Amino acid sequence: MTSTASTAPDPTPPGGPVADEPRPSRGTGARRRAGVGDRGANRAFRWTATGAGALILAVLAAVALFLVIRAWPALTAGGAELGETISWFPEDASILSFVGPLIFGTLLAAALALLLATPVAIGIALFISHYAPRRLASGLGYVVDLLAAIPSVVYGLWGSLVLPPVVIPVWGWLADTFGWFPLFAGPASPTGRVLLTVGLVLAVMILPIITAVSREVFLQTPGLHEEAALALGATRWEMIRTAVLPFGRSGVISAAMLGLGRALGETMAVLMILSPGLLYSFKILQAGQQQTIAANIAANFPEANPMGVSTLIATGLALFVITLLVNMAARAIVARRKDFSGAN
C-alpha cells in the first residue's frame, strides 16, 4: 500500500540559497546628519577655545607693549633731567635707583602678608573641611568667602582708623623685646602707620583667597586615603598630616601664589595706611621707611606731568614683570610638586 505524502513547495529559489539582505535602518541618515553636525560643532568649539587662548596672549602682549612704549621716555632720560622735570623725583637719582626701593617695599609687604595669612588660612580650611560640623562648616565657609567681597578702601579705612590704636602697644612690645632682630628694630612708630600694619591688613585681604582654594583642595582628598590612615590607627591629625596635606600641597602653593599676586598689586589700603619712604630698610616697625609701587603710582599720578606719568608707568612695568615672574615661579613649583601630591 503506497501512501502519498503531501509535498510542499521548495522555498529555496533556483540558484541556491540567498542570504537575507539587511533592511536599511530608518535612523542611518539621521545619525549621519547628526555626525556631520557634531563634527561641525566640535570644530567650532575648538576654534573658539583656541581664539580665546590666543586673545589672552594678545591682551598680555598689548599690555606689555603699552607699558614699554609709555615708559620709554623715562627709561632713556637721565637722572638730572628727571629730577629737574618731576617735582617728587629724588635729586641726583636715576630711574633704577628710584624704582629699586619701591620694588623692595612691594616685595617685603607682600612677603609679610603671605607669611601671616598662609598658616591661618590653612588652619581655617582644615577646620572647615575636616573638623567642623556640616552646618557650621557651610556657614563659616560663606563668611570667609564674604570677606573677599569687601572693597579694599574699606580695609584701608579700617587699617588707618581702627587698627593703629590696637596694634601700637603690640608693636612697642615687639620693639622692646625683639629689637635685636632687624625686622623689629625700634623705636616703634607711635602712629602705627608702618609696614607691619600694612602686612597685617593685606594678610586679612588675601585670607579668603587662600582659604577658599585650600578648602576645596582638601575636600578633594580621596576618601580611601583617609580611611586607610584611620584604619592603621592614626589620629585625625596624623591622618591629615599623612594623607590630606601631601595631597593638597600643590593646591596650597597655588592658593598662596594667588594671594601673593593680590598683595603685590594692592593700592588703596597701602596708600591709606603706610607712612612712605624710599629706603632699603627691613625696619617694619618704623615709619617713613618703605613704599610700594602701586601706592606710589596712586599717590603721585594726579599731579604728575607727562615725564612724571612716564616715570610712574616705568614703575608699573617693573610691577608687571614681578607679577609675571611670580606666576611663572608658581607654575613651575606646582608642576614639580604635582607628581608627589598623592593624587596618583
From TrEMBL:
Transmembrane segments: 52-75, 95-128, 140-158, 170-187, 194-214, 309-330
Membrane topology annotation: Multi-pass membrane protein
Domain ABC transmembrane type-1 intervals: 103-330
Record's keyword annotation contains Transmembrane helix: yes
Location of this chain's protein in the cell: Cell membrane
A Pfam family that the UniProt record links to this protein: BPD_transp_1
Domain of life: Bacteria
GO cellular component, one term: plasma membrane
Sequence segments annotated as region (Disordered): 1-37
Biological process (GO), any one: phosphate ion transport
Annotated signal sequence range: none
Molecular function terms from GO: phosphate transmembrane transporter activity
UniProt keyword list: Cell membrane, Membrane, Phosphate transport, Transmembrane, Transmembrane helix, Transport
Entry's family note: Belongs to the binding-protein-dependent transport system permease family. CysTW subfamily.
Known role: Part of the binding-protein-dependent transport system for phosphate; probably responsible for the translocation of the substrate across the membrane.
Protein name (record): Phosphate transport system permease protein
